[in-house]
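Hey, quick one: can you model this chain's 3D structure?
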Amino acid sequence: MTVKKIIGECLIKMGETDFTSKTSYTETEQKLIDSLLAALNIAYREVVCEYLPLVHTETVLFEKGEYAVAPLEKKIIYPIRVTKGDSVVAFKAYADRIVAATDGYAALEYAYMPDELKLADDIENLRLTQSALSDGALGEYYFANKVFDLAKSFDSSFREKLGFLRYKGRRLMLKERRWQV
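Sure thing. Here's the predicted structure for all 181 residues.
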C-alpha cells in the first residue's frame, strides 16, 4: 500500500476530491497534503512504536561484551533478542549500547523506527490496513486543527482497528486518549 493511496482515502473521508493522482498541486492542495502527511507520520510511528513493531535482524560484533548501537543499519527503538549460534544470550540495553554475556559476532534482533514517510513511499508493515492508517492520520489531523469531535471519532476507530490487527482477530480494547474540550 502506498502513502499516496492513504492520503487519497483521507481526502475522500474528509469529503474532498482525491486529487493525489494529479502531477502538480495548487498551493492549497499542497498544504493539505503536507498536513495529512505529517499526521500520517505521527500515526504510523505510534503504530510502529507501540503496537506492531518493525523488526530487523543484523549480525553485530560484541567487543568485551558490549556493542555500541550507533552503527546499526536502522534506528533502533529497543532490542528484542541476541543470539549466538542456536543459543539465546542474556543482554542488558542502555541508551547507547547493548551489554551481553558474549564476545564476537552475534545476531541482534531489534525493533526499529522507519524513516519519515513521503508521498511516493510504500508502507513497510504489511499487517496494517489502509483504512486503519487513514483513520489514524485523520484523528491526528483533526486534533491538530482543534476539531475534537471528529478527532475523537477517527482516533477511536483507529484504535479499534489496531486492537483487531494486533491480537489477530481477538477483539481487545486499547486504551483511548483523554480528550479535553
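One thing worth noting: The beta strands are 54-62, 66-68, 75-84, 87-89, 91-93, 97-100, 104-113.
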